[in-house]
Amino acid sequence: MASDSITSKPSITADHHHAKDDLEKSLVFDAQVLRRQSNIPQQFVWPDHEKPGVDAPELKVPVIDLGDFLSGNPAAAMEASRVVGEACKKHGFFLVANHGVDQRLIAHAHSYMDDFFQLPLPEKQKAQRKIGESCGYASSFTGRFSSKLPWKETFSFSYTAEKNSSKNIEEYCHERMGEDFAEFGKVYQNYCEAMSNLALGIMELIGMSLGVSRAHFREYFKDNDSITRLNYYPPCQKPELTLGTGPHSDPTSLTILHQDQVGGLQVLVDNEWRSISSNFDTFVINIGDTFMALSNGIFKSCLHRAVVNSQTPRKSLAFFLCPKNDKMVTPPNELVDTCNPRKYPDFTWPMLFEFTQKHYRSDMNTLEMFSNWLQENISCQRTCGLNPGTRVGQDECYGRAKMVYT
């Protein structure tokens, strides 16, 4: 997946920037209304080749006992790292059990999610997410796209693990939703802190599986700037026509997903869609594009999607681990040699995030296209005589590279 193999520019949809204003204003995804309609709006109907088919066979993903790994048992640690390495080289998914996260906190997080998504639409829109932002409420992607819209609502929070940082989620919920949401904000602040700690433990395991020091990636991500997203997939009377989330790879580093018992997560493995069963006692872990770059392409960021059904809402909690905003995404020296040379240029997480929010709709080619975009930035530096070591030079080239894709 080296960037020099790319022969075309990103297939950025024209509607990303040029959707008609009247369409955006008229199309509203009100789950309480649409879930009962026998015909769904055309904007939610996916092309035939992307529509969900018959029930997908189950993917047998390994279950890692994280308690054994973190207890210091050398044999358990070696076996766990071996199993995780095999899974991440093939499809990037595994489960963790005995993870140490308080089950009451998980239950509260699901309960408050239920309460929020049952609110009338105007109440939820008090926290409306703006284009380019990482936090807030979104009813499908009606403000960003005008076709292949996902059948879902989301509420996202930005989280920072840096020491002495403010309780940013509590403050955000209080500011946007009011005093009644004080406990709501506290629950998700605590949930994010628990997910960040869990992610650092998983990063020790991943470091071992890649043959670098156990502490390398834990240290790299200790001051992470991450995102938590509440996903709500309402029932759809024509589930065979739409998708809860379209095929994509996560642009972030690592996803920690907690599902309810409904199911609907599917992964593309060997050109076949496979389902991952729900288990309330485990978290689903998958590698994202940023970590694929950090591993120099050794670990895979796999294509996945979510399907919906006609009877029961599906809910999930996703924590997207991301590096600190000023951290450079570059693989450790141990993962680069003559047999496995550098596959991706250096970048920071905010650069990739902006690319996916403003210039490119995430799919299976996001990292390749982003790498190509960065290479054009580098070429600009060379041909324009700008100094990439200065902020002015970086900003000028960054701006010119963006123009190619807008």
UniProtKB/TrEMBL annotation:
InterPro entries: DIOX_N, IPNS-like_FE2OG_OXY, IPNS-like_sf, Iron_ascorbate_oxido_reductase, Oxoglu/Fe-dep_dioxygenase_dom. Pfam families: 2OG-FeII_Oxy, DIOX_N. Its cofactor is L-ascorbate. Keywords: Iron, Metal-binding, Oxidoreductase. It comes from Dovyalis caffra. It catalyses: gibberellin A12 + 2 2-oxoglutarate + 3 O2 + H(+) = gibberellin A9 + 2 succinate + 3 CO2 + 2 H2O. GO terms for molecular function: gibberellin 20-oxidase activity; metal ion binding. The keyword Cytoplasm does not apply. One of its GO terms (biological process) is gibberellin biosynthetic process. PANTHER family: 2-OXOGLUTARATE (2OG) AND FE(II)-DEPENDENT OXYGENASE SUPERFAMILY PROTEIN-RELATED (PTHR47990). Pathway: Hormone biosynthesis; Plant hormone biosynthesis; gibberellin biosynthesis. Residues 223-323 form the Fe2OG dioxygenase domain. Belongs to the iron/ascorbate-dependent oxidoreductase family. GA20OX subfamily. This is Fe2OG dioxygenase domain-containing protein. The keyword Oxidoreductase applies.
